[in-house]
UniProtKB/TrEMBL annotation:
Major enzyme class: hydrolase
Source superkingdom: Eukaryota
Enzyme Commission (EC) number: 3.1.4.-
Name the record gives this protein: U6 snRNA phosphodiesterase
Ranges annotated as biased composition (Low complexity): 28-49
Family: Belongs to the 2H phosphoesterase superfamily. USB1 family.
Native organism: Pseudallescheria apiosperma (Scedosporium apiospermum)
Length: 328
């Protein structure tokens, strides 16, 4: 995929090194009118145009890391164990909403992890999910499915079904707002995660106070609607469901379960309690105050099957953007 077109001469480093720089022409003020001299010696005031931004789908091309082993070797993954054993013909899959924090947001999230680490007083060690082993920023996500294992015969039909379910949900692009930082024990692994819980917000300008930590059972939001469609598709393929109450026997979903994972640990940590309140008792700063002012735009859903990521966009102008379906 071509991002920027360059001329052939720019791509030849040997030529660039061998050719000397042209000599700067001396300006002659004696023979030229004053107006012409001023024009030639005054630098241009316009700034050089910046490179065009990367397209949204560019990140999907590099969403998977290089496979280091086909067997479960926790030593290669900081002690983590593979949730889905590698089986030839099976495709590890996941449905999620992706978030690429800005540089400023990234710094704030790093600060939250540092505050949480101090709260643990050395009794546990947190491993950040914000950067790769080489220090590059990583995208975060809000899960809409459990870790899934699709067979070769299922993967194409699953992608078609999940795409149809998401697009027919009539969910328009929306925003989510972070509000609470807690530790959460994963039911699928031996890890405990430091998570930032999120709620949908209809208007990114509404930041006067954090949203309520509990919601009405009858309330329907874009997140719950998308989750219901994903769970319905997973159920039709006899796959595990996400955040389904009563073990999946009931229709209700825990609205307060949606979160973004920031770090993880294999050690025992106090689960369920707020790690950082709106104001730290030993600090004049309010670590979460800045986070409460964020609005994370959700324009689509990612479906990852094996190492292939498909972006399913939410249609602008669909019902639900202004309360026609969703009650906030």
């Amino acid at each position: 995929m071509g991002l920027v077109d360059y001329s052939d001469s720019d791509s030849d480093p040997d030529q660039a090194l061998s050719e000397p720089e042209p000599k700067r022409r001396k300006s002659s003020t004696a023979s030229a009118p004053s107006r012409t001299s001023t024009t030639e010696t005054t630098p241009p005031t316009g700034r050089k145009p910046s490179l065009p931004p990367l397209p949204d789908h560019f990140h999907d091309l590099y969403a998977s890391t290089v496979r280091q082993s086909v067997v479960d070797d926790p030593s290669l993954h900081h002690g983590r164990k593979r949730l889905i054993p590698h089986v030839v013909g099976n495709w590890p899959s996941h449905v999620y909403i992706e978030w690429h924090p800005s540089a400023e947001e990234h710094r704030t999230l790093v600060s939250l992890i540092q505050h949480a680490q101090k709260k643990l007083r050395g009794e546990a060690t947190l491993t950040s999910l914000l950067t790769s082993d080489l220090g590059a920023p990583l995208p975060l996500h809000i899960s809409l499915s459990r870790p899934l294992a699709l067979t070769t015969a299922q993967k194409d039909r699953f992608l078609e079904a999940i795409t149809t379910g998401i697009r027919s949900s009539l969910v328009a692009p929306f925003y989510v707002k972070p509000h609470t930082l807690k530790f959460w024990k994963s039911p699928d692994s031996n890890r405990t995660f430091l998570v930032l819980y999120v709620h949908p917000c209809p208007d990114p300008q509404i930041f006067s106070s954090p949203p309520p930590t509990t919601t009405s059972k009858a309330q329907t939001t874009p997140l719950t609607t998308l989750l219901h469609r994903c769970n319905s598709t997973a159920r039709s393929f006899d796959l595990p469901l996400l955040y389904q109450k009563n073990g999946g026997s009931g229709p209700e979903t825990d609205e307060d379960a949606f979160h973004v994972s920031l770090a993880w640990t294999l050690d025992d940590v106090p689960e369920g309690e707020e790690v950082i309140g709106s104001r730290d008792e030993r600090d004049d700063k309010a670590p979460l105050d800045e986070v409460h002012g964020w609005a994370v735009a959700v324009a689509g859903v990612k479906v990852k099957i094996g190492n292939v990521v498909t972006h399913v966009g939410l249609e602008k102008g669909c019902a639900g953007g202004e309360g026609e379906i969703f009650s906030w």
